[in-house]
Design goal:
327 residues, alpha/beta, Rossmann fold, 8-stranded mixed β-sheet, 8 strands, globular
Length: 327
């Protein structure tokens, strides 16, 4: 079965362009290079052939066990020199362009200089079609029309693959790591803040969300995917989520309301605002208000806004490094 899935992935990945469906916050950073990506794909190893080692760069196909074993994730990685069984692990999450190779490459120099590994899983548009399977992680059968009857079990959520991938990597390198850090830009930040809300007991340590296009705000009176109504998120789950280390990370020039594929509708625009910057501010302030109403600790941090930076993944990654390294 895994061999069949691998061959199937090779056939499809050579012509997929990785674009998400419309209105789900495409990543418009300047670090796209599909020609280079195709070369990497041709050199991809299967799960059975993977051999992660010091000072290596490449990719492999990860086939998870369990309910999502029909999915294949190509994982781009870079490992610096060093004893890899105990150096930190960073997951880097792409935006709507699904250009995971660039989200690995954005970190290579920083990984070499600071001694951590970077893994960038690619949620392609074949196995993880549209925003429902990536941005909204298959929480509901149709994320824009949620109901209790269409709420999927957690083993079907795309979120559930992340800890499995981490465990797989640690096993492959005979590692002793017990946690990982995660950074996402644009659609990747959408994925990560919902990951924190819905799976607060994951093995992630720090979550850094840069320039998401829109949010699931912990706010009553607003329907999912924009608020808590019909979200199936309980107060206990929110309390656990607020205890995590989540960094809300915004560029102060990410203010274009007409940005390509930035989602707009009456509910979202009236609630969160018209651009990524004001939406991020809204998400943080209302999350803090919700935590205060529950009388619980709120460990989320809004970092200083990155001056002179708009919707640029590389520049946001450069600034996010300081938060990954801090104790």
């Amino acid at each position: 079965m895994k061999l069949f899935q691998y061959l199937k992935a090779v056939i499809f990945i050579l012509f997929l362009n990785g674009c998400s469906s419309g209105n789900d916050d495409m990543d418009i950073s300047s670090i796209d290079n599909f020609e280079e990506e195709q070369v990497i794909v041709e050199q991809t190893t299967s799960v059975s052939e993977i051999n992660l080692g010091s000072n290596s760069t490449g990719s492999f196909n990860f086939v998870p066990e369990g309910s999502l074993s029909n999915k294949i994730i190509e994982v781009f990685y870079h490992i610096p020199d060093g004893e890899i069984n105990n150096i930190p692990i960073l997951f880097s999450f792409h935006g709507g362009s699904r250009n995971a190779i660039d989200y690995r490459d954005a970190w290579i120099n920083m990984a070499n200089e600071n001694g951590f590994m970077v893994f960038a899983p690619k949620f392609d548009n074949f196995y993880f079609e549209g925003g429902d399977m990536y941005n909204l992680a298959n929480i509901f059968q149709d994320g824009d029309n949620p109901s209790s009857s269409t709420f999927n079990s957690s083993d079907l959520w795309t979120f559930s693959l992340i800890d499995k991938l981490f465990d797989f990597i640690v096993n492959e390198i005979n590692g002793i790591q017990t946690e990982y850090n995660a950074w996402g830009h644009s659609g990747g930040a959408q994925f990560l803040h919902r990951f924190t809300l819905y799976l607060p007991d994951s093995k992630v340590n720090k979550v850094i969300c840069s320039n998401a296009g829109w949010y699931t705000v912990p706010e009553n009176g607003i329907p999912f995917p924009y608020g808590l109504d019909q979200s199936e998120l309980t107060d206990n789950k929110l309390i656990s989520a607020f205890s995590k280390k989540l960094y809300l990370h915004l560029g102060d020039e990410d203010t274009d309301p007409s940005s390509s594929s930035l989602r707009h509708n009456e509910v979202l625009d009236d609630q969160q605002g018209l651009n990524r910057l004001v939406r991020g501010r809204y998400f943080y302030e209302n999350s803090k208000t919700k935590a205060e109403s529950l009388n619980v600790d709120f460990n989320w941090i809004k970092t200083p806004e990155v001056e002179g930076v708009g919707h640029n993944a590389q520049l946001m990654a450069n600034d996010a490094l300081q938060y990954i390294l801090e104790n």
